[in-house]
Amino acid sequence: MKVLLLKDVYKLGRAGDIKKVANGYGRNYLIPQGLAIPATEKSIKLAERIAEKATERRAIMNKELQGMAEILQGMELEFGMRASETGKLYGSVNAMMIAEKIKELKGIEIDRHQIVTESIRNLGEYVVPISLTLDLLPEVTVFVVRESEVGKRPAPVVEEELAEQTEELTEEVEAAEETVDETEELSE
């Protein structure tokens, strides 16, 4: 079935687009939720007007949500979970847990449907995009660690510290090379 999208639908299209979708998806989800209408000749004529209004609405929403996106971008969340010796979790970290952690830390309410991730089932570091709008997708970093290791994650190395360490190592290597050269001269 062909539908005319009235609103932006993630992974389907933008408002004003005419898309071919499965009958059940159109009839049971898109149309009842007010996201689309069946594409008829009359509705196709409305498509351009709907697209213009949606573009204006999208620009306003992007402006309003830009501040929230800046706060969320690069945010780090840590979850302490029980896990087996192989790193497989007893349970999982899901979108609802991520949304609750963001609300707890920053006071920003995010719908769990905006968090674009499958449930996390292993220990490790994951980059999780959050779909504020189709154009704004800030990414948060989720660290899943054992319960006993919460808060013990090493702090990220700042670029300046990294540059200092590199400079120190370079000096040590140069000093070692000079020592080797002097040793070779003495042995000759």
Describe the structure.
The chain has four helices and eight strands; from the N terminus they run ββαβαββαβββα. By secondary structure, the protein is of the alpha+beta class. Helix content is 43%, strand content 21%. The mean pLDDT is 84. The protein has two domains: 62 residues, Ribosomal Protein L9, domain 1; 77 residues, Ribosomal protein L9, C-terminal domain (Ribosomal Protein L9, domain 2). The protein is elongated.
Write the layout of secondary structure elements.
Blueprint: E1 2-5, E2 18-20, H1 23-30, E3 36-38, H2 41-72, E4 76-81, E5 88-93, H3 95-106, E6 120-122, E7 124-129, E8 139-146, H4 159-187
Parallel strand pairs: 4-8
Antiparallel strand pairs: 1-2, 1-3, 5-6, 7-8
Outline:
Helices cover about 45% and strands about 20% of the residues. The protein is built from 4 helices and 8 strands, in the order ββαβαββαβββα.
List its traits.
3-stranded antiparallel β-sheet; 188 residues; alpha+beta; 4 helices; 3-stranded mixed β-sheet; 2 domains; single chain; Ribosomal Protein L9, domain 1; Ribosomal Protein L9, domain 2
